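Meet my pick.
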Amino acid sequence: MEQYYNSFLEHFKQPANNCLEIGSRDGHHAEIMRKLADIDPHRVYIVEPHPVSYRQILSNYPQFRTWELAVSNKPGIVEFNAIPTDQFPDHIVGTSSILSANTEFISQYWGAPHPINWIKVMTVSGMQLLELINEPEIDLCKIDVEGFTWEVLLSFGDAIRSIKSLHIEVELATVWRNQHLYSEIQHMLNFYNFKEMYYIPLYLMGNQGDAVWMRND
């Protein structure tokens, strides 16, 4: 998060005033962003569809504005694999997703099958989310949605230009069934005139990692 915020400061030459986290699990990264930029807690926004994780965020960070929602290019009610928090550690719960895991790929790295606990959740588009937030611009935006990043970005439409920076989890290989890979996300963000700052390979032999992009003004 510190490298992300330093990139923001270097690019925009001014501090951030708000932040948005889509797919949070625990709210901790939103809190790190808030502390780095000294953001008013009431201008920290979180979207988390996992019902238990959502309640944990409300308990830990009651001043943040948090919604029990997913973000999708197809708003409505969808199935979501909400991995039970009382049966699995945090890093496994963090792989809860709208998408099904590509078991053939995952099995190469995991010693057990990917847990399954499908529930129904509500989704909104990125454009609808921006209406809920009601800020002229979003300064810091972190997206960690386990293979669903392309759909989340697409759902903002042209309003994605109201987001100044993006910290996104991406995949170079098909970790999730029917997912869009980083090359497609790069194409979209280039189209909307964002600049790629860096990619850090983190997991699955470098096939999953974090990328940071800044809006060109």
